[in-house]
Amino acid sequence: MDGRNWRILAASVAGTIAIFAVLFFLVGGRRVLEVLFTATPSLVAVTFVFGLAWLAAWSLMLWVILGTLEVDVPAGKSFFIYAAVVFANNVTPFGQAGGEPVAALLISRTSRARYETGLVGIASLDVLNVVPSVSLVLVGVGYYAAHFTLGDRLQTAVGSAIVVVVSVAAVLLLTWRYRHRFVDRTAGVISRTAGRFRLARFTTEAITEQTIADRMHRFFGHVERVAVNRRRLVSTLGLSLLGWLFQGAALLAAFAAVGHTIPLYVVLFVIPLGNLAGAAPLPGGLGGIEAAFVALLVPTTGVPASVVTAAVLIFRAAIYWMPVFIGGGSMTALGVRTLA
User: Fold this and answer.
1) Vertex 286 angle, CA 330 and 339, to 5°
2) Where are the domains of the chain?
3) Per residue in 290-324, pLDDT tens?
4) Predicted confidence (pLDDT) per residue in 43-65, tens digit
5) How far apart are CA 90 and CA 95, in angstroms?
6) 296 alpha-carbon distance from chain centroid
7) Surface-to-core class of residue 97, CB atoms within 10 Å of its CB (0-12 exposed, 13-18 middle, 19+ buried)
8) What does the angle CA 44 – CA 45 – CA 50 come to, to the nearest 5 degrees?
9) Measuring CA to CA, which residue among 299, 305, 217 is closest to residue 258?
10) Which residues are bridge partners to 93 per DSSP?
């Protein structure tokens, strides 16, 4: 990791610390710690079990997608590969947006697939996860709106989510429609700038404009293969939905651990909306996601802010920190010592 990357990482870690400091100041750090110390251990353990179930469901998503791309990876190994992918996302600024290139490299190294195949695999997983998440937001917010008045904060969050999803979908559709023109216009730019990021050491091929163009054409070919296989596509979407529901169950268990219950319909939209903060320039969205969850859950549940914060910290321990430890160990077990 060069000096520039270290500076970016240091800045993102500083941002995370600052957000947590402000959050604890606003909600009362001492009260949060008191709630955490009185949490029911067995229900905390249940939270972690649901966290493992979520990780397993989305690792099976990756297994199905890689199988569609004719990458032969055992289902058990895909769990450790995906855990390592989550680790890469969680320690990279901008969350999944920053971790996808690293995750693609990890997949290619551990499965002997081409880099662009790994990139299609992890990008497809992230894109397909959007479909169930948007559906859950619409169902949850729709039920909430039918019984309560939507506050300004919730309206802003939902509006922002819709804008982001529509914008991303539009960019993806336009890129796909004009993919051949896109390749022609960008291959040269990529080949001229690749040296700045020292990508040559990750491949035995010379990074020329033709090489980049060939890889981009293969990339779009792989995307088409994933999209047209309806049976596998339905299976992948089902596993995605199951993973989201496991996350919801983990959040419910975390609140139960601190002695409170919250409505399921709130959980359905809070988790996808809160995860939008993962696009912030923070390691895996750490700090930003916790603050977003608290900001959404306090007005929609009526639970005291300190209790909400404690429950969110337990939930994030299962969804963020557990995959970090499992994924870090997976990278070592898979023989990946460095990605940069």
Assistant:
1) 40
2) 3-333
3) 998 998 898 888 899 999 999 999 999 999 999 99
4) 999 999 999 999 999 999 989 88
5) 6
6) 19
7) middle
8) 100
9) 305
10) 283
